[in-house]
Design goal:
Structural class: alpha+beta
Distance between the termini: 33 Å
Strand order of the largest sheet: 1-2-3-4-5-15-6
Strand content: 25-35%
Radius of gyration: 23 Å
Largest sheet: 7 strands, mixed
Shape: globular
Length: 393
């Protein structure tokens, strides 16, 4: 079997998209009709698909999808890694390793400062610099838990894809600013990907301002709340009371929300069955450009220095210094015995800047080499917000 390093990486053209679809069908064990296949192939038009052919067979492939995420009130480009697949007879030849390394350089060229993916194996993608960065909780309620809170003065309106309202975008965009790393969603994404056959219930106050929504389905005596999004506590109460109004229709409710949501604390009985799940991995693609747009906070420190090791994206490896004037200097030089600054991998640096782990936590688990005081100084420059990811792709 020819090794991957001897094969050329090809950017697939539309005439080759059916090869990519057939590989996905085999690897992910599904089959679709010809009509669905045409729609799927059409959707590939905005993907960058890279593959490796062996004997005219697409042996392995990777898709890079163009997205944007919110960072400090601005949108930055993100490359979403998806549909990574290999036929079994070509596995363990290093093809995916080659494709992932190639994808990093391609995303950098396109100005995609970060990359997300939903992993089949966290350990596998950690080897290439991606790191876990977001958790959510799944709360399980029984019918007996549906105890209404004090009434609030606003009202609820329900919507579907057919009578879509941009009020949901207004709520979501304000909500997204309270976190780091949330998807930027446009109307097409809402209609084509987020809503599907679900309902949206929006809470409005007496001034008719939209303050929160739930994205949900009810079927077979079960209510599944995919998103619970509020920008004021009034909406949190109003939406919970709306959920309670389903007590004659459902026997169980399952709700997703972010890990530190105070919602449970507000209930008459907050002692619910809760599952915590890790959701998605992130990777900084271009450290210098990411630092240029990152929302550092002012401190009294004159400067902070740190070193980054990135084996798969060598342009990131080097020494960085941040001054209190928010200027950034970079040197590709790494001094192995340097004790004037901290040294960390791109994985741990991503977890730190996405606020998934604190500097002290990284110090405690031995993830920081060199001068640990420098990384604690860097912590003071970072915003006090949490990561959140609600989208799948």
């Amino acid at each position: 079997m020819i090794g991957a390093i001897n094969l050329n990486i090809t950017k697939l053209q539309p005439s080759q998209f059916r090869d990519a679809l057939q590989l996905s069908e085999y690897a992910f064990q599904y089959q679709i009709s010809e009509e669905e296949a045409k729609k799927k192939i059409e959707s590939y038009m905005d993907h960058d698909i890279y593959g490796m052919y062996e004997d005219e067979v697409l042996a392995a492939k990777i898709h890079i999808r163009p997205f944007q995420i919110w960072l400090n009130g601005q949108k930055i480009r993100m490359g979403g890694i998806a549909n990574v697949a290999t036929y079994p007879e070509y596995r363990r030849n290093g093809y995916i390793r080659e494709l992932l390394t190639h994808s990093l350089a391609e995303m950098k060229k396109k100005g995609q400062l970060v990359s997300y993916l939903h992993p089949f194996s966290i350990g596998f993608y950690r080897k290439f610099g991606w790191e876990t960065f977001s958790n959510y909780i799944k709360i399980h309620f029984s019918k007996a838990d549906l105890i209404k809170q004090n009434e609030v003065p606003g009202y609820i309106k329900r919507f579907t894809k057919k009578n879509y309202t941009r009020d949901v975008e207004t709520i979501y965009d304000e909500y997204a600013q309270r976190f780091i790393g949330m998807f930027a969603r446009d109307e097409n994404r809402w209609k084509d990907t987020i809503i599907n056959d679900r309902n949206i219930a929006i809470y409005y106050n007496l001034d008719h301002e939209p303050l929160g929504f739930i994205l949900y389905q009810v079927a077979n005596s079960r209510m599944e709340i995919r998103e619970f999004v509020t920008i004021q506590h009034e909406a949190r109460v109003g939406l919970w009371n709306f959920i309670c109004q389903h007590d004659s229709m459902v026997t169980e409710i399952e709700m997703n929300t972010y890990e530190t949501d105070p919602f449970l604390f507000t209930l008459a009985n907050p002692d619910m069955k809760v599952h915590r799940l890790t959701y998605g991995m992130a990777r900084i693609i271009d450290v210098q450009e990411f630092l240029n747009v990152y929302p550092f906070q002012p401190t009294n420190h004159e400067s902070v220095s740190f070193q980054i090791i990135d084996e798969n994206a060598p342009w990131n490896t080097g020494t960085y210094t941040l001054s209190n004037q928010s200027t950034i200097s970079y040197s590709p030089h790494i001094e192995q015995q340097e004790m004037s600054c901290s040294c960390l991998t791109i994985n741990h640096f991503t977890a730190l800047l996405f606020r998934y782990k604190s500097a002290q936590e990284l110090v405690d688990i031995g993830a920081i080499k060199g001068n640990k005081e420098e990384i604690l100084k860097l912590e003071e420059l970072l915003p006090k917000i949490n990561p959140n990811l609600m989208d799948f792709f």
